[in-house]
Write a structure and sequence with these properties.
Radius of gyration of chain A: 21 Å
Distance between the termini of chain A: 56 Å
Largest sheet of chain A: 7 strands, mixed
Oligomer: homodimer
Number of helices of chain A: 4
Structural class of chain A: alpha+beta
Chain lengths: 248, 248
Amino acid sequence: MSQAGKVGSKATFGAALIERPLVSVDVAIFSVIDAELNVLLMRRQPGPHEPYPGLLALPGGFIDVAKDRDLIGCALRKLKEKTAVAAPYLEQVGSWGDAKRDPRGWSTTHVYFALINAEVVALKQGGNAADVQWLPVSAITPQLRLAFDHAMLFAAALARLRSKVEYTSLPAYLLPREFTLSDLQSIYEVVLQRPLEKSAFRTRVLATDLLEEVPRIRTGPNRPAQLYRLRNPEQLVFFPRTFNPPRD
Amino acid sequence: MSQAGKVGSKATFGAALIERPLVSVDVAIFSVIDAELNVLLMRRQPGPHEPYPGLLALPGGFIDVAKDRDLIGCALRKLKEKTAVAAPYLEQVGSWGDAKRDPRGWSTTHVYFALINAEVVALKQGGNAADVQWLPVSAITPQLRLAFDHAMLFAAALARLRSKVEYTSLPAYLLPREFTLSDLQSIYEVVLQRPLEKSAFRTRVLATDLLEEVPRIRTGPNRPAQLYRLRNPEQLVFFPRTFNPPRD
DNA sequence: AGAATAGTGTCTTTAAGACAATATGGC
DNA sequence: GCCATATTGTCTTAAAGACACTATTCT
């Protein structure tokens, strides 16, 4: 504790004259691809003192106190570095921190999850942005070792997503701007991994002010469907009850 | 970024060779006193480079990487320093961090809320543990300035508590080990700030396996009431729906 | 016409809301 | 018996579950 108190260019003093943990942000970026919930993972590169080289990990990294105004800013930066998405749905899952999770020392991480529509995304491969890939969440098993405690962080993010999908309009952020009610129901079913009642679903969704009709219709080899869009994309909608809970 | 990379006794290297934010934990400790929801606040002491001297703040402080095994351990330590409570209900609210919230530099905080039964608690006054006091949450107004961004952190903790009380057994942790159904209902009403239907409340609570009867009865100047205790104190119970929502 | 999906209707079920009725122990 | 609170019951209501039925476009 002697010559400490100065890190980088900023002076510290008073109660702050203590060893500081490492601080990072990790983001679980979800998207639905081919009727499956996917998560974006990147392969960690080899390098001096780089832990877990070659393993997959959630996109993330240390706070840059020069670049990042705040935690969300950091999460958005990580997201932008890996995908071209600028303004996705972003929500904090929580934070974790202990002495052991990073071999480089006592470390904390702030975990966010993001929902995006994958069709609009171009993954930024190569360069210093290492291997980036979509993986179905069903492929994230104990056999597939993730770096650090990212398996646990991912599980927490997925659990939060699934639980909140039961009573909110979250899945709408996984769709393109315009979609049909059937599209929306399918996305719910993909995330929740169970079928929903069509009639109850439609009544429930239309009972809220979540959607507004687009004066257009999707045609196909069958009866065309009304297109909708979010009435207020910034505003997450809460339903009065959960969807039919799985039988116990 | 020249001679950085060493803070205290631990070496850092690689990607960790960057300026680190300050890391703290803050705890909103709730209790019901005289039929009012209270929160524990402490008055910040004057001192060299101590920000916000004299203002009230949530109990909290920097992570001690030597003492604290993890974030929850740190939260429990803060709690134990201010109250004599060892094992309360503790839940993370979230984390916040930006360049401005602490004048000493880029800082992050991990916020928890705790629920305790105040009758069992002895506040640790004086010493280096500064003024500690219970304040009704209704007294936390903009006029009462709190240190740092603690007004916002407190508001987030209170909002989380209130919203989760709508569909969980959280308030049971604000009661002593044995209580009557009327006690429990009163606590819900105190936290939610609205009356609940007696009949629906009882049916709903007894329909879960939240409680078990204690072979004892509370007598008084009226019909005695059955005493209950938590069947599984570690296990938070979720109700299938929310309580009757406030009229809109 | 037939396939396929969109959209509606009807009846049941679940759990809460409103409110009344009954129960019990101390005084 | 009276008071005060505990406990139960009855009827209504809100919203979902189950499932069938109708609608519309394309081939």
